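tool=predict chain=A
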Amino acid sequence: MSLLNAGRVGRPHGLDGSFHVTRPRGALLALGGAVRIGDAIYEIVRRAGTDQRPILRVAGVDDRPAVEALRGGDLLVSRADAPSLPAGEYWPEDLEGCTVLTPEGRDLGCVDRMRALPSCEVLEVGDLLVPMVGDAVLSVDVQARRIVVDPGFLGIPDGGS
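tool=predict ok
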C-alpha cells in the first residue's frame, strides 16, 4: 500500500486525546478518514483548527498520556484515500528521487525533497533550489522519474558539468 505523509503527532490539546498536528497536509486529514501511526491504523473522530494548524483526535486515543506515547509519530494516509490533485500539482513523494535535467539533457541531480517556502514550493536538488513555477520547471514526467528545468531561469550555465 502506497502511503502519503499527512503530518506528525504534536503536543496534546486538552484532556480528551486530541493533539496538534505538526507539518500538516490538511487536505489529507479528513474527519472519518484513516491514518496510520506506527503499526496501527486509527479513524479520525475529531477535526478542528485549520488546514495549517489542525487539531485531531483519533479513535482509541482518549487522554494526554496516550497522545504523548504517539508524539512525533508520522500520520500516514493511503494514497487511495487521498483527494485527486489538479493537473500540474504533485504529492512531494511523487517527485522525490526524480532526476532533474536541462532541456539538453545535463543531469543536475535528484530531488531530495519538496518544501514549502512563503512564496512557493521548491524542489531541493542538492544545493540547488528549484521553484515550482512554470518559468523554472518546463516539464514533469513522474512515470519516467524526470523533471526538465530551465537553467537560464535558475541562473546556472548549461554548458559542461
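The chain has two domains: 3-80, 92-154. Helices lie at 64-70, 92-95, 151-154.
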